[in-house]
């Protein structure tokens, strides 16, 4: 959304022949909306009605008379709709938001529209400020192609109450959802940590519809930037929640201002740097005139870092602006965070001025513009050509209906020229990235994943027993400060000033209490959210986003079968490439922990492998020692009562066993090999 001038000078060119044109069919999906009693759609409240989406499939034509054939209806049901936007409402063509409903006209109904994941909140984007009719669509798709979520999109043509309305983009509304902004939804009771820490969706924007300003910040040049709650909703937010998320932004501002790059206390500890860099790249590639002041979204998951995005309202880009209101700000040779106009909060410019951040920004940029990469000008040009080919038929009707100025093909040519010029300028002005190229990362490896544990009488909730194992496959101790799981979904950041010994492992669990009850040992840490039962991308990164390890597991072949059957994924050897499913096995071996034992509780087992007698010594009194086979069956228990114990194993067959040692301070579980 953007500031509308006090005086609006708006020329509308609608010819009678355009208004009377007959629309019968399209190569695009056709959205037909009929409000109850033909009521006019207004800004507020939403008006109930029926929506049908005609779509025969890719490459097929869609006809208005298909609306009576269920085989060709992608959706046929109730909904409610309203006009959306701020300054865009001054245009004759309107934009809409709508909610899909159950037949009772009250209950929200999650549905999949045109192949997009199920939800109930949707947008019909009229692209009213973009004569090329492609800028939002291009920007959202580029954002997803570089790995960040942005609204999924589908072009369509729209008919409302029997009147043809032109070309639209049906797209997802920004909201918290596993398939959209993938964060937990914060609620009214959530006023103490860890629940207080997320999730939030916040935007820098102007207020519309009476939404109150949550707080303000200053730009680098002293302008006031207003922030608004998106989640929790402004009418539901509590003071503790506002204070918490506001303080996260204040902490970002303070650490960016001082240039503090400490993984423990600087801006890398506050923000997910890759998301901020990617958000800047998409906005700066298009030279978005509104980039950092209006429709600038942020989100934060529970226990997670502050993330930038998703990108939104990208129509004033690639040389386009509100020319009829006297604006001309989207140029190829400016940084939009430093023009003295819509610069956003000062932390954007302070981050850019920080040598470390700017190095990683340059590195990421130069990776993305390489041949075959999403932001390479040739790749963007091909994507534009493909899009133009798909919408060109509808564009003729759109231009005739709304009197759009200019020649469509020239608008497209101007965007392509802008991209080429802009890429060259940004590349030459970002500077070198040699200081952050090929940064060494520790040899940490994800070696176990229990993404869908089996349920039982004692543990009826599968998610409670999820765990991940991370192994140090090197010969040196690793400082874990700042290391975290990036992206969205699983959330975990290792505590500052913690270390992992050579060739040791740590276990991270979703529920420490359930894990302790199941395995009689405490995990190293607890992650937030749950692992997907289908597939998930696990990205272990350092504080600046350098990838340490990356595994995308799946519950389908060729991955081993570990989906709810009591088994978990186990890497056969830490030295193997864990991105390859053939290097994993489905295991049901009993879980042991190799992570560093606190001082005063160390236990020594020797010899291992063992022939006859296993010696056990501890710095704490040993209460009992139990022996299990690899499948968790109890074979032997002895009571000790002092700090040493000898376990006679001569009569046991060769193989791998598990020893569980219970001391006065903790329980330790280790593997042994019987010769």
Account of the 3D structure:
By secondary structure, the protein is of the alpha+beta class. It has four domains: 16-172, no CATH class; 195-368, no CATH class; 444-587, Immunoglobulin-like (Sandwich); 603-674, Immunoglobulin-like. It is 19% helix and 28% strand. The protein contains nine helices and 30 strands. It has helices spanning 16-19, 135-145, 239-258, 273-285, 346-353, 355-368, 377-402, 408-430, 512-519, and strands spanning 25-26, 30-35, 47-54, 62-63, 73-84, 95-101, 121-125, 153-160, 163-172, 200-204, 215-218, 224-231, 296-300, 306-308, 444-450, 467-472, 478-479, 484-485, 499-500, 505-509, 525-526, 535-541, 547-554, 568-571, 584-587, 603-606, 613-629, 634-648, 655-663, 667-674. A seven-stranded mixed beta barrel has the order 2-3-5-6-7-9-8. A hairpin with a 5-residue loop joins strand 22 (535-541) and strand 23. Helix 3 runs parallel beside helix 5 and helix 7 runs antiparallel to helix 8 (408-430). It is globular, with a radius of gyration of 29 Å. The model is unreliable at 1-20 and 594-601 (pLDDT under 50).
- Secondary structure tally: strands: 30
Q: What's the N-to-C terminus distance?
A: 71 Å
Task: Summarize the main sheet.
Answer: 7 strands, mixed, barrel
Radius of gyration: 29 Å
**Could you say which structural class the secondary elements and strand pairing correspond to?**
alpha+beta
Proportion of strand residues: 25-35%
Helix content: 10-25%
Structure annotation, total helices: 9
Low-pLDDT runs of 5+ residues are 1-20, 594-601
Mass-distribution shape:
globular
Q: In the residues, how many domains can be counted?
A: 4
**Mean pLDDT across every amino acid position:** 91
Spatial order of strands in the largest sheet: 2-3-5-6-7-9-8
